[in-house]
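> forwarded from #structure-qc
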């Protein structure tokens, strides 16, 4: 089979040489099955592969970015990216490949992989259990030196802001615009890792882009993880996309996910719920523990301490310390983008990390960098042609009149999900699943799950149950009655919503950053919810 893939690559190489110039190569001739534009070079390369398979009666199904899935009734599928790095090919940059892999269902069962740089002629191959090779020579990943990392990082116009932060943390980084080759560099031991983190789902990687290089990397001793730290698997589905971290050494993955130490001498903000009993004493303890550090104090309590204060939204700080409950954390998150850590001086304090008995130890750990930062996505409501305040926990649409039911239609990606009469509708993140949504019978959702929860409030029909939908979906809540509603975001701000209108909810490109000492979500659930009074 490897000989067949080599012959196919030969045919593609010859075919694209016949295209006269970069203008013709890059000419857009339609839209592919993946929803992106198809250029001349992509289509010629793909047609060459399909023609070869048909002419030589090769019994394989095909999954390709332009044509989608072709069911030839075979047991196995050729996962094909006829040209990975099309923009490079059009621009004359010698970094583009044909990528081919054979398997049955997903990345996990790929058994053979073939990758060729169509300019240099370099060939990388792998068979499951038999190792990875470049031009016939065995290749291996390298042991990483954390102080001397060389990473491939996607830095295109769709990249997540944290990608640029990562580039500043390592000694050297590159972005080549050809995922298969960038991952191959990790497999060869020339680079330590490759991070693909797109801000929007539509810009992240398709399975066809990395099917071959994934097996090559794994056979060379490396691994690929999703952004939640799980070993990456992707179904053979042209609509399936993912962000990931590919590494040769596990400690590179841990380094990437570890908290970025904000600065050597960070500035701290202190946000306080002054209504908490003993709020002044707790604040004094935090200030004392920060002795020698630069900090700004929330103006809501500064006067009581005889100190200068600053509005939270004007604090230019590296870390925000909140004193109160979850509401205080949410209030700070809405008004400031700094990473947050909460001192729980409230009730359950599910989002808080430090108990009041552990203030001094908690501040010590922050100062010494003994923490990680968890990023959680937020929900962005769109109403009346503008974005409203973003929710870390939930956005709640409910009746503006006590004991008055409302009639709603709910759509997911413009397809009607349900029609319900209820007091309101909650749209929750996994972070908020342990709050208001949980009290209404919705499931507790691990924050690593990329989903949103839609929860009817006191629905008239018993059959109106919570729904869990993909986080990248657009959720539309339509008010069917003339009577108005209120939209309440994280319990912090509210908006009047007119009857006979609708609100869209989408995943925000912004995240909230929570400083953690313990990242075990399930022990947190046991301690703060299951065993709580």
């Amino acid at each position: 089979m490897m000989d067949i893939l080599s012959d196919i690559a030969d045919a593609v190489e010859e075919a694209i040489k016949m295209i006269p110039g970069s203008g013709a190569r890059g000419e857009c001739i339609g839209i592919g099955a993946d929803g992106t534009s198809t250029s001349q070079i992509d289509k010629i390369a793909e047609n060459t592969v399909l023609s070869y398979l048909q002419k030589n009666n090769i019994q394989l199904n095909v999954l390709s970015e332009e044509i989608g899935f072709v069911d030839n009734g075979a047991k196995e599928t050729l996962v094909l990216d006829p040209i990975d790095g099309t923009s490079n090919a059009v621009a004359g940059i010698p970094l583009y490949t044909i990528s081919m892999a054979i398997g049955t269902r997903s990345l996990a069962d790929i058994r053979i992989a073939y990758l060729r740089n169509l300019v240099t002629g370099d060939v990388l191959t792998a068979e499951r259990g038999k190792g990875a090779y470049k031009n016939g020579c065995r290749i291996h990943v390298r042991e990483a030196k954390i102080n001397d990392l060389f990473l491939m990082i996607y830095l295109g116009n769709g990249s997540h802001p944290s990608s640029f932060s990562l580039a500043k943390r390592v000694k050297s980084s590159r972005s080549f615009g050809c995922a298969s080759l960038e991952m191959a560099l990790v497999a060869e031991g020339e680079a330590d890792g490759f991070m693909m983190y797109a801000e929007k789902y539509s810009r992240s990687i398709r399975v066809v882009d990395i099917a071959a290089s994934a097996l090559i990397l794994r056979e060379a001793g490396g691994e690929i993880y999703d952004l939640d730290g799980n070993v990456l698997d992707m179904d053979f589905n042209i609509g399936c996309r993912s962000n990931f971290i590919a590494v040769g050494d596990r400690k590179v993955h841990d380094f990437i996910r570890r908290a970025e130490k904000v600065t050597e001498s960070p500035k701290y903000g202190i946000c306080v719920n002054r209504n908490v009993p003993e709020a002044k004493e707790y604040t004094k303890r935090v200030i004392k523990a920060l002795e020698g550090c630069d900090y700004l104090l929330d103006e809501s309590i500064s006067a009581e301490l005889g100190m200068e204060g600053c509005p939270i939204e004007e604090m230019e700080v590296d870390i925000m310390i909140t004193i109160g409950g979850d509401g205080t954390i949410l209030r700070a998150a809405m008004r400031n983008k700094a990473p947050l850590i909460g001192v729980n001086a409230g009730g359950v304090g599910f989002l808080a990390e430090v108990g009041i008995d552990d203030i001094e130890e908690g501040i010590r750990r922050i100062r010494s960098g003994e923490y990680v930062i968890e990023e959680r996505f937020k929900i962005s409501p769109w109403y009346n042609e503008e974005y409203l305040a973003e929710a870390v926990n939930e956005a709640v649409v409910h009746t503006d009149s006590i004991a008055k039911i409302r009639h709603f239609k709910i759509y997911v990606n413009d397809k009607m999900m349900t029609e319900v009469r209820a007091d309101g509708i909650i749209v929750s993140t996994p972070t908020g699943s342990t709050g208001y949504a949980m009290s209404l019978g919705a499931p507790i959702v691990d924050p690593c799950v990329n989903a949103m929860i839609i929860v009817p409030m006191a629905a008239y029909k018993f059959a109106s149950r919570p729904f869990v939908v993909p986080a990248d979906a657009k959720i539309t809540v339509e008010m069917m009655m003339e009577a108005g509603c209120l939209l309440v975001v994280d319990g912090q701000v509210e908006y009047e919503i007119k009857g006979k209108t609708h609100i869209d909810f989408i995943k925000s490109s912004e995240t909230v950053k929570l400083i953690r000492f313990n990242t075990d979500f399930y022990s947190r659930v046991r301690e703060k919810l299951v065993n709580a009074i």
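QC bot note: The longest strand covers residues 502-516. The mean pLDDT is 90.
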